[in-house]
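Q: Focus on the chain.
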Amino acid sequence: MRDAHRLEPVSANLGGGTVLAAWERFVQGEDQVPGVRPLVAISWHRCREQYRVDPHLTEAPVAVAAPDRTPEHDVVFAELGFRAASVAHEVGNLGGVVTVADATGRILAEWGDQATLARAGDSHLAPWFCWSERAVGTNGTGTALEAHGPVPIRGAEHWCQAFHDWVCAGIAVRDVVTREPIAVLNICCWRSPLPASAESWLANAVTMTQHPLKRRARDSGAELVAAYTRARSRSGAALAAVDTAGKVVIADDTASMLLGVPASTPAVDPTLRWNAGLPELIAAARYATSQAARDPDWVGSTQIFARLTDEPTSISIRPVFSSGHLIGNLVSFGASDGAQLPPAEGPAHPRVQPRRLVAMRDNRMVLLRLPEVSFAKSQGNDVWLSTDQGRLRAASPGLDKLDGELADVGFLRVHRRYVVNLSRIREIERGPKGELSLVMDDRTNEMVPVSRRNAPAVRRALNL
């Protein structure tokens, strides 16, 4: 933003009255939003259908929860604070405000023009108030938590009418391994455009902030492999090393089959881990993280449904530390050492099951009833839906996210590239080696392959 005052500003009200008119229709229940950017249209849909945010809300609520802090998070907050403070004077001269928020949307600190800060305070755009989409709808901070890359939100693109005079742009710093958000950097102006360099400055700030995260991920990956190697020399049990998010760094031959990941092969880039896609394993790893923070000698055990098994498998989970910091866990299969893990608790915010799926046809948002969707298929960076209206691109940014949203409403992951609607399976075909394929009840009766590691879950779901 060094030369921001010499650059042409972006429009403060994207689409002029077109966006405002679309917003007025959408809050009244209409679905078509011509002239509205897809990112904004999808956010509006979340606000109305999932989060049920009142579009006439006038201020943000007090933040009621703080996420667990890790050393990586502290590094991010310190770096973002430094970068925000370094441009605070320049942003202030433009009548703007810079904020840093955590992964819940809770504002931690702000800098900028005093008059704008005072006006922001009227809406609770201030420390210790929550600006997630769940709390206040579409806005720079909250929508950045839901998307990737810089997110500009201008004028009537905000979900709440009280914020239509604001123009802002936010970007989330994400964990380089899990891709979960850690913090958000945001710039706001009142009734005036942001400088044209705002989005590039935000992206550069995040890139610089993630450098130490990548170094830490590489170091912790290498140390988990070393801990795995030492443990393998002392025990014959099937073994895997997972990070604190439950992603696999390395697994032996037996563990790899149970987890559905490559055997004895750590990722070439230690920041890229294998995703076993087992919710119980992820829950166990996260519980182990919380327990190990209180007791470094803690060891626990539980049972999970692994791949290729019809019965739960016992696992023992042992934390791994480096320089006093937890970096992951060693998971032994067939073992039951340590304290029993309690039943998994529900999320702090109960997940709202989608009533409809959002798809895109060109620049138009299409709302689909769940029975209209036969299956979803990942292709490159996109997810495509086979529907009664034809083939449509899903608004969801990835198959993993879509799988999580649909897991409890009759959809099942059957392959790394496919999620199917169980009620739309017409026939099941067995191959010469016992492999399964699903003939779907759609326009073309398309066949969907079932991977070997997902076959037991398919048999359980279909009572085969």
